[in-house]
């Protein structure tokens, strides 16, 4: 702003110097990178990105080309880059040729479009054929019968949500997080997810209040079993390990249970290493963080179904600690359930199945 005073004129004239409008150059990364470099920077192959774009393109197109509107592919790649690096939205904007406010809107617009596919890609087995298929695949790991899912919780770091309830999101390790419950199958696909509880919530509290437990209680899954850790109660449908196995049969049960349930732990490693933003922390508002968690879970399942492996870390990714420490920081061991761990169903399973394997 410039003030210009003239001795011949008693009035001051004020001139506002406006910043010139800067149209950033937008690179065509889909064609600029070969497939390997593309996978490293955007965490999925070109083929997977193209197929995903077909599914969500209608949600991303603008009604006109006025003001150099951003193409759906550029919107998608900017969002994937955000998931891959956890860079600030200013940096994502510079990378993608967008202003910071535009980058902010596009990241959350694309995340919502991807999350809307959750009913197509995050599906719990409901038919007898699907249940038996899951049970066969789990049985092939360590001969644990009737398993249709492995369940646990993982913490996703977030910024303080503010307000009177902010401290509810501080977990036992002292940082703010969302405690995310997932159930996975033997292929490490997430078949059920609950992403709305604060970091202070106990794992068993989340399960006790979710619709999946009500369906198990109602017998919707027959004799199907969920494998869980010691923070959950032993019931006819949830099987934690034995706290103090005393016989060879009980030790065999524990070994088989732990090896089979390890699928859910491995799924967290794959999910977070593919999308490092989940391990490094979501620096967005709470409601948008929940959408990003669901969106990355959908992408995780799409890529597991395609058989795509986790690419090497992006060269621009800055890790505050080794991956082993970051992943361990997201797993918070809960105190054992106060519910008595003696379960008639578990005892029958041990005596009728695992005794025959000795």
Account of the 3D structure:
There is one protein chain. This protein is α/β, with parallel strands linked by helices. Helix content is 46%, strand content 13%. The strands form two sheets. Strands 5-4-3-6-7 form a five-stranded mixed β-sheet. The protein has a two-stranded antiparallel ribbon with strand order 1-2. The model has no long low-confidence stretch (mean pLDDT 90).
In a few lines, what is going on in this structure?
With 358 residues, the protein is of the alpha/beta class. It is 46% helix and 13% strand. It has a five-stranded mixed beta sheet with strand order 5-4-3-6-7. A two-stranded antiparallel sheet has the order 1-2.
Tell me how many strands there are: 7
Radius of gyration: 25 Å
Helix content range: 40-55%
How far the N terminus sits from the C terminus, by CA atoms, comes to: 86 Å
Describe the largest sheet. 5 strands, mixed
> How many DSSP helices?
15
Subcellular location: Cytoplasm; Nucleus
Main location: cytoplasm
GO molecular function, one term: metal ion binding
Pfam family, one: DDE_Tnp_4
Topology (elements, then pairings):
Blueprint: E1 2-6, E2 9-15, H1 29-32, H2 35-42, H3 46-60, H4 72-85, H5 89-96, H6 100-115, H7 118-121, H8 128-142, E3 147-157, E4 177-184, E5 190-198, H9 203-208, H10 211-217, E6 225-227, E7 238-239, H11 248-274, H12 277-280, H13 286-306, H14 323-329, H15 344-352
Parallel strand pairs: 3-6, 6-7
Antiparallel strand pairs: 1-2, 3-4, 4-5
Helix pairs in contact: 3-4, 3-6, 4-5, 4-6, 5-6, 6-13, 8-11
Domain DDE Tnp4: 151-301
Organism: Parnassius mnemosyne
Pfam families: DDE_Tnp_4 (PF13359)
């Amino acid at each position: 702003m410039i003030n210009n005073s003239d001795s011949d004129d008693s009035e001051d004239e004020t001139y506002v110097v406006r910043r010139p409008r800067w149209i950033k150059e937008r690179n065509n990364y889909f064609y600029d990178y070969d497939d390997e470099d593309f996978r490293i920077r955007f965490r999925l192959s070109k083929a997977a990105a193209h197929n995903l774009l077909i599914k969500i393109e209608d949600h991303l197109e603008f009604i006109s080309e006025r003001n150099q509107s951003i193409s759906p592919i550029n919107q998608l790649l900017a969002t994937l880059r955000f998931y891959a690096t956890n860079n600030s939205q200013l940096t994502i904007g510079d990378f993608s040729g967008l202003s910071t406010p535009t980058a902010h809107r596009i990241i959350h617009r694309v995340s919502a479009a991807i999350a809307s596919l959750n009913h197509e890609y995050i599906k719990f087995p409901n038919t007898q054929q699907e249940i038996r298929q899951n049970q066969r695949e789990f049985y092939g790991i360590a001969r644990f019968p009737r398993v249709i899912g492995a369940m646990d919780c993982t913490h996703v770091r977030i910024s303080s949500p503010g307000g009177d309830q902010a401290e509810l999101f501080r977990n036992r390790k002292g940082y703010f997080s969302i405690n995310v419950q997932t159930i996975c199958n033997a292929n490490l696909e997430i078949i059920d997810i609950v992403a709305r509880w604060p970091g202070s919530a106990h794992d068993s509290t989340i399960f006790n209040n979710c619709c999946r437990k009500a369906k198990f209680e109602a017998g919707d899954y027959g004799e199907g079993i969920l494998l869980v850790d010691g923070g959950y109660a032993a019931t006819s449908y949830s099987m934690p390990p034995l706290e103090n196995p005393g016989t060879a049969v009980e030790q065999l049960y524990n070994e088989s249970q732990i090896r089979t349930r390890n699928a859910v732990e491995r799924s967290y490693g794959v999910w977070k290493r593919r999308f490092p933003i989940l391990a490094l922390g979501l620096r967005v508002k709470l409601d948008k963080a929940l959408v990003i968690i669901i969106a990355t879970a959908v992408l995780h399942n799409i890529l597991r179904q395609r058989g795509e492996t986790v690419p090497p870390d992006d060269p621009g990714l800055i890790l505050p600690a080794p991956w082993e420490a970051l992943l361990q920081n997201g797993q918070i061991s809960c105190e054992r359930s106060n519910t008595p761990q003696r379960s008639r169903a578990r005892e029958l399973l041990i005596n009728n199945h695992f005794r025959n394997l000795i």
